[in-house]
């Protein structure tokens, strides 16, 4: 029963004032106007369901994916282990597993046709995180250009890609170790850069703290930072920005 | 002399091949095609000049502002001390100083008419940082809705503003202490949230480390984090996103 | 207009379904059932208003206190500077200022008569934080026994107070430097210990990090820890526990 | 021989003054009045014995449990490995092992009938820590309501449980990653919230440091924090508070 | 009344069993055998009273010192500000104030004649902490050899003093910045080295964390470390060791 | 087509001004004058190729090495696992693998004959990192003197090698735990010391943080520090300095 | 050839002035007077050889032990793995291995008969570190009293052992988690306390940082702290102090 | 008396064997062969005296400078306050004070004519540290090219200076905030880069920790890092490298 129905029944006397009062008081806020709230927020926003793999058993993953598949809901599962993926694919052969970024996707309709996102990495070891970001952005309808291994130690590699970087609605810059890629890139383009520090490195990189601090302290404007190794978060944010950019096309 | 002129002179023989080669080799990359590069990047992107106040003498600030004013260039100066502001205003009475956020602006034309950004704070002590963000976004053409003192300890205050939050192209969430505002807000809206941790708090807030970590670890998707107290960075990023959103209106 | 009134007007047709729906949708959750929500949560819980002094101007503090005084609402203001206190007392001479703990209280009725809380400190330098805790607990109706300077370096001092400690409904243990007081005390009593690390110390106490970690890692059971120097938080929690203990007397 | 017996024998001359003096001087403080002190403090407080599993061999665990079982003493063992549990159950089939929270319990009488504690988690990965808390509280006689996966990223889930949360004598809020659950909950209820940060998360959660700081810095009053992943400590503190609340029923 | 008296009165019936039982139960442990426990531990150990200056008002310092002076008790006050010292000296002209190390001493008898302690520093900026250590050791009866500015960057300076270092019963090594003095010294002598990291330095010395870690990680055996800048603690420990060494002379 | 060719074609009219302008604008900066830029920077500097092993599959390592071998390019691969090494050696038997330092080298010509570098370690456990440094310096043409296990806890071992240390163009000092070797050495020689902290140690060495801080805070002048365990970086820097020293021989 | 021999040969002309000069100049400092310096410092001090196990191969350990055994030198090897121990015992069956503390000892004469050291632990999980300390102290000739599991959460356990603690020349206090044992103990005795933080604990104990800070910040005087888990260092320091105490017996 | 003289006297019998033995044993190592060791190491290396200003009184600075001036020794004093400088200049008017970098120099001869060092900064706020480096390098005989405000956020500024950077024997890269300048520069040149992190920045720059970590983790080879704000250390190291490079000209 939604709020409108409730109010109608109050008006007609089917529901007493006391009952209505209590009902409204206890309801979750969002339920008042929107039955879809029982579904995950990402679905509500038209973005499809997202599942976070770690801490879920193989059985749970299979069950959740099957549940959504039955409803023809698109699903993106992140940080999925090969064991989890294999089990899902046994039941849902249409599920697609990307090994490097450990994403598993299940699509029942074509994604929105959003604009263009560039995903860059400083080195080759950052690619798994970048793939997570890229697959996430693609799942939500973005076109993704992968520009890998363009770290600032050999800055000409980045410059060789400058034209394409400048055309993107937004750029996801993935880098470990010193993490300077985000700042240098942001200094070269006009659109937002989403910075993803990675745990790639050793010693004083402190599992990603060094690139995280580098990115937060960047002198270049136009950078938003996400958690260490959080490719998904970057891809999601990129899709949101892209959707805004493409809204009125 | 820009690249075009150089090439013309190579063609006509006024400049030898050797000279042209050396010239092109040594030139900064961006200078090749764009004389505007002598100007700050933000100007190039149509966003106006930005000056960072700290570490500059009163005389330097006055000189720089005067220089831009002479060229009718719009200027935003951040973290400007009252002494610096007063000195500029003595020479340029049209300069506007906002005390809380310590921004000084100088406009010679109407800003672009970009869309709508909401700037929220957890508490009243976060307002200076929020004002820096708001003034920055406004300088770059955004409409800003200020929604202050809506921290999660009294979450009904945030909910009372939900409708307006959901209409914004993007939200700047400014919070110190526990910093949960960004995550809770991102869970309630569809558009990007730019999270600004502040150094407001004491003890285990460690001058903003606590809200910084909270924001980086948020379970809600769609959050980009900037440096502690970096209101300017958040306002700039909000303006970039807003510009993308409004591009095609 | 509260929810009950609204529902009555829906029933009688004074308010249309559409209006009622929108109203309910936009209302802060808590407002639905409880008009007192415009007031601070602490008031709602019968505990009186609380004001946090830092970041407020002298004028703001005076204004807020006057506002509450006009409504005969009890007020506790914490971390109030002598300047702020003096200004309030000029307008409201009945306001009481406690210098050490920097609390300012304004009472218009007798507090609840809750049970007994013991507030201990490791050293004399911890007393300001302890006074903040004690005054807070007293404001909310607790009886407070102050047991100061009973640090574990001379443990007989603590033992001399054991009988009284064991009678308290709960104990607030305030300590800087090594911060072992909370753990040793919890090992001696049956009721909860609220541990308050203080920034008292030097060198490797790291402004309260050392006692904070000590308290979090205590081997004794029955300890809840609050932020460094957070006397108010400890006093509030003690009052909550005390209220539970005394509920059914 | 307890103190009373000793004194009687001094009076009758069976024990010389010298002997009695030495005996009293060397005795542990608590032994003076209470022979039960040879037993664990938790037993003395009527709460039953507690054993901490890590660092004990399978043989040791079995031996300790058997020892208590022979005396019909209730036992709670925490962080018990499956191997340890299996070995105990082979000898004491009545021992109950809860896999998720890794607690093992042995009861010989019905627990006290204390009041009602709510144990909440932010996500599903926090459940093991929450189960440790819940089982501990139950072992000490509390009724526990489990409210799992109500993190603030989808805050309507928490609101749907508000009524039950408000009825609890105290709430244990278990959360990793950003850890905002405790603060948001404390802002919605009147009774104490015991906050348990968990090591769930990655990157800048730093194995639980992020939620720990969030919880310590919460703007909402009425929160006591325990160590990262310390479900037992939270359950114990909840039971203490509950016992106070139920004392006089 | 001490334990012996009590027992006698129990025997003679002057004190009832019940009274005696309660009395023994509540007494602080240490009081049972030793009335001196009302005095500070350091006095009990024949070492004289110690007062920690910070956090005490000028009046309190004067009062405490006067109190001890009236009883002809020796007093060492540490971290005494010039203001505090001046006020004490106005009342007690015989009090001696050492400016660099900020110690104030009041002696009424000759100190014990303990053996020989060497106090070394890495640089001249470490001398205040070293003086606190030296004065403390002297107060407790040690002979002190001051060996300042013998840091390892010019290691011949340390070697020039090797003979005297090897004769000391123990060595206090005071150093900031890299803090390698303690380890190098311990590698050259047979007796214990007490290492005192200082907050002297800048940048990555992190107010003494760098030398603290260096000293804790020293490869040389025979080092005990005290808190950053804790000259008093080092001097006290040196005196304890010296007393052991000299006991049987 | 390089810049010279382009300019010639502009002069002869084969390329239009517009085309040339666009071409120059988009080119990576370094490509303008130097086709070798497609190669790695280290090659450009005459130093040979460097490959970082971690994060590369066995196949990738073999492929890259084969690629260079086909062009007779010298290769240094660092942090190569035994598995990776074995696979390369199966295809390229001339490849040399050094187990301790995990370097794999492939030489097709004699290296430059640069001067003399000393590589020292504090302990035996630091040798793997030192070997990485030594092999790197040798690969780039240095003569290397290995001086291992000369930590400052037994400083005579270092002094026994002083003459040879003073002859080196530069010294690589490798040390974990307290890390004082670099500072003591720099105090004894005239030439630069490259300090390499290692993760050797336990407890408060924090995986190399302790020696890193020691080295950064050294009172001795003439020290440049590299990342924890970064033997390669130290060897490379030593070779650069050595090359400068030997340039004009 | 020692210095005396050299000088004699200079006198008799067997060695030229030039040769002698060079020899003296290059010699390690300690070699000048003491041929034993080729041996480890600990031997020089009459304390026997010490070997640190980690990072040494089984073969190396066997070789070193055999080398010393051949010379009838006493050896203490610390942190020896069972594999290493077994291999040594196969060759040297008289070698004694203590599993918990992982020490291996080889004695060829009776140790010195030094005085009495007490080694305490907070919990049972600290025993391995305590055993390392105890065995080390015993190897160097101390009598050791083991007082385990006397943590401050049940402080009567510590008090029960007070008499013996007060008789010890020095006390080694080993504790993880909160680490308050050292401070409480130091407050109860007159002699030095050597504090050993352990990595026992979880969450905010940060692998021993919490007890390390507790111990460094102790309010009780007379504490020297060693590295986390450094049982050997504590035992060595205890033996040094004990030797001083017993020197003149 | 130097070693040669001693040996001659031993030979002639003027000094007994016993006397000579003791003398050699106690002498500082370096004194044996080198009387210059009484002077500071930097003097010994022909580099002139260096004085560190902080912690020295105005009188001490004047006295030390006068002492050296009397001996016509060149002096470089760093971190000299204006008060200290003024006092020195009153006595020694030839002393030169550079305000920004706070260096004071006193030269009595022309410096060596070493090669060319480039000193770069990321921003204008880094200039004081850069000036300290530059003046230091100049004092020791280097030619210095100052290249300020070439941070990577506007990377064309750096590229505009590439030719001059590539000609330098070594480069000092001074940068705060993100600190990426060192890595990008090292990727563009062949010679060593000395990286100086500065405390310029705010929030998550943590007083220079962020650029320090960035520099230590740089992917580009050929970087040696010094302490935060350590301009002197960088200038000194640059001079050492330069001296090596210029040795054989």
From TrEMBL, chains A, B, C, D, E, F, G, H:
<dbReference type="InterPro" id="IPR039476">
    <property type="entry name" value="P2CMN_synthase_LarB"/>
</dbReference>
<protein>
    <submittedName>
        <fullName>Nickel pincer cofactor biosynthesis protein LarB</fullName>
    </submittedName>
</protein>
<dbReference type="GO" id="GO:0006189">
    <property type="term" value="P:'de novo' IMP biosynthetic process"/>
</dbReference>
<dbReference type="GO" id="GO:0016787">
    <property type="term" value="F:hydrolase activity"/>
</dbReference>
<feature type="domain" description="PurE">
    <location>
        <begin position="115"/>
        <end position="247"/>
    </location>
</feature>
<dbReference type="InterPro" id="IPR000031">
    <property type="entry name" value="PurE_dom"/>
</dbReference>
<dbReference type="Pfam" id="PF00731">
    <property type="entry name" value="AIRC"/>
</dbReference>
